[in-house]
């Protein structure tokens, strides 16, 4: 989830004014392992909280209602973990959504979990970097009417996927720019269910097991 900088629309008051004292709209996106945008939600005001944006999005609502045809969820006592989304500190911990353990004085196994989660999130960060590199409008404020903000951003996400699929001569990895026009959303501390902690603990245990550990992880924490 990122804040995309915009100009301050006329007569909009503080709707687009975010905590970093800039004007923005929020792009919440789900990406796959191949750097494609799979679900995009755009248009929330910069002033809105990250947790509220996710909870009120169609994706957040359908996940909470368990209306999506996802594989079986985690069952207490089972060693099999469910499929999950990977998020950062801006998201709440759910049975279907993993976020880092908060705090600094963490145990080794929790620090390893946070490293592995951060490593997976690089796919998301690189996808936004590719978008910024390809579409230079992302490197400055978008000057447009509010009704056009959504269409501009959605069009960029669609074209990003199209170029990756059909333009084999374009290397989106050749130049991954810094996210100059993006503002990260602040971290939140939301209460999680016991079942959600069970899921994160299952992944935590797997990441330090012989089957799930990677050789270099102890050197990265």
UniProtKB/TrEMBL annotation:
Compartments, as annotated in UniProt: Nucleus
UniProt entry tagged with the keyword Hydrolase: yes
Keyword terms: Hydrolase, Metal-binding, Nuclease, Nucleus
Protein origin, superkingdom: Eukaryota
Example of a GO MF term: metal ion binding
Residue span, DDE Tnp4 domain: 8-161
One annotated Gene Ontology cellular component of this protein: nucleus
Cofactor(s) for this UniProt protein: a divalent metal cation
PANTHER family: NUCLEASE HARBI1-LIKE PROTEIN, PTHR22930
Protein name, per record: DDE Tnp4 domain-containing protein
């Amino acid at each position: 989830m990122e804040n995309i900088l915009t100009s301050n629309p006329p007569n909009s008051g503080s709707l687009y004014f975010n905590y970093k004292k800039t004007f923005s709209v929020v792009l919440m996106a789900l990406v796959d392992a191949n750097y494609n945008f799979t679900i995009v939600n755009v248009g929330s005001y910069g002033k809105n909280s990250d947790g509220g944006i996710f909870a009120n999005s169609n994706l957040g609502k359908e996940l909470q209602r368990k209306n999506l045809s996802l594989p079986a969820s985690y069952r207490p006592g089972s060693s099999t973990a469910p499929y999950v989304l990977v998020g950062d500190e801006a998201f709440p911990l759910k049975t279907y959504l993993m976020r880092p353990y908060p705090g600094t004085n963490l145990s080794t196994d929790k620090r390893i979990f946070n490293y592995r989660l951060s490593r997976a999130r690089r796919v998301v960060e690189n996808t936004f970097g590719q978008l910024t590199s390809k579409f230079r409008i992302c490197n400055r404020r978008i000057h447009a009417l509010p009704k056009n903000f959504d269409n501009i951003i959605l069009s960029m996400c669609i074209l990003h996927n199209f170029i990756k699929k059909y333009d084999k001569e374009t290397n989106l990895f050749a130049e991954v720019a810094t996210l100059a026009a993006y503002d990260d959303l602040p971290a939140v501390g939301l209460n999680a269910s016991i079942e959600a902690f069970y899921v994160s603990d299952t992944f935590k245990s797997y990441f330090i097991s012989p089957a799930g550990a990677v050789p270099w992880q102890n050197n990265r924490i």
